[in-house]
Amino acid sequence: LAKTTQPISMDSYEGQEVNITCSHNNIATNDYITWYQQFPSQGPRFIIQGYKTKVTNEVASLFIPADRKSSTLSLPRVSLSDTAVYYCLVGDSGNTPLVFGKGTRLSVIA
Amino acid sequence: SAVISQKPSRDICQRGTSLTIQCQVDSQVTMMFWYRQQPGQSLTLIATANQGSEATYESGFVIDKFPISRPNLTFSTLTVSNMSPEDSSIYLCSVEGPIRGGYTFGSGTRLTVV
C-alpha cells in the first residue's frame, strides 16, 4: 500500500475554508484515495473517496491532480465541530485492510 | 452503509485478566478487521478475520495474545489476553462500506488495564 504524508496539525478560524494536502508519491494505478475523519472517542468516519480530478459531496471536496501523487481535502466554512483528526489513505479496494498514517489534527478556533 | 455495534464501549481491567470485545454488523460481510489505537496515536491493524478460517495477524500481533473468533458473516470477537498496562488502548472493528474501498468503523472499546 502506498505511504502517505500529511501535515501533523493545522489551525483554522471558524468560517474559513480548510485545505489539507496529502502526498502519496508511490500511488498505484488501481489505488483510490480515501479520507476519514475521527473525533475523540469515536471510530474513523468515511468522508470522501476519489480516483482522479475532483469529487464533491455534502461534506467536502477532494482535488486530485493528473499525476495523482497528491490530493487535497477541502472543507468549506469550517465550524468548531470540524475539529478532528483527518486521515488520508491510499489503496485499491476489495476488502484490503487500511494502513493509517499519522493523520492531520485540525483545530478550529472561534 | 453497514451499522456496527461494538461492545463494551469501555472497561477497566486488572492486569493478568482477559477481555473479549464483540463486534456485530447489521449485514453479512466477508472480512472484518480489528485495529488498535494507542493513546494519541494512529490506528494499527491487528488482524483480518474471515468467516470459517483462522484470522490473519499483522506483524507484532499473535494469536495467543489476541485470539479472534468469526463464527458467522455478521459477528466477530477479539480477546485481549493476559492483559498488562501496555494493552491500554482503544480497540476498533471495521468492515468495508459504504462504498467499495471505503470502510465503516465501530465506535471502539476503550480499555484501561490497571
Kindly report the average pLDDT value of chain B.
94
Give the oligomeric state of the chains in this entry, treating copies of one chain as homo and distinct chains as hetero. Answer: heterodimer
The number of strands of chain B is 11
Structural class of chain A: mainly beta
Strand content of chain B: over 45%
Walk across the major sheet of chain A and give the strand order: 1-9-8-3-4
| Percent helix of chain A | under 10%
Q: Structural class of the secondary structure composition of chain B? A: mainly beta
Low-confidence stretches of chain B: none
**Large-scale geometry of chain A:** globular
What is the element string of chain B, with H for helices and E for strands? EEEEEEEEEEE
The overall pLDDT average of chain A reads: 92
List keywords for this structure.
heterodimer; A: 110 residues; mainly beta; four-stranded antiparallel sheet; 0% helix; B: mainly beta; seven-stranded mixed sheet
SSE layout and pairing:
The complex is a heterodimer of chains A (110) and B (114).
Chain A: E1 9-13, E2 18-23, E3 32-38, E4 45-50, E5 53-56, E6 61-64, E7 70-75, E8 84-91, E9 104-109
Parallel strand pairs in A: 1-9
Antiparallel strand pairs in A: 2-7, 3-4, 3-8, 5-6, 6-7, 8-9
Chain B: E1 4-7, E2 10-13, E3 19-25, E4 31-37, E5 43-50, E6 56-57, E7 68-72, E8 75-80, E9 89-96, E10 103-105, E11 109-113
Parallel strand pairs in B: 2-11
Antiparallel strand pairs in B: 1-3, 3-8, 4-5, 4-9, 5-6, 7-8, 9-10, 9-11
Q: Could you characterize the architecture of this molecule?
A:
The complex is a heterodimer of chains A (110) and B (114). By secondary structure, chain A is mainly beta. Helix content of chain A is 0%, strand content 47%. Chain A is built from no helices and nine strands. In chain A, the strands form two sheets. A five-stranded mixed beta sheet of chain A has the order 1-9-8-3-4, with no helix packed on it. A four-stranded antiparallel beta sheet of chain A has the order 2-7-6-5, with no helix packed on it. Chain A starts with 8 loop residues before the first strand and ends with a strand. By secondary structure, chain B is mainly β. Chain B has no helices and eleven strands. In chain B, strands 2, 4, 5, 6, 9, 10 and 11 form a seven-stranded mixed beta sheet that branches. In chain B, a hairpin with a 5-residue loop joins strand 4 (31-37) and strand 5 (43-50). The mean pLDDT of chain B is 94. Chains A and B meet through strand 3 and strand 4 of A and strand 4, strand 5, strand 9 and strand 10 of B.
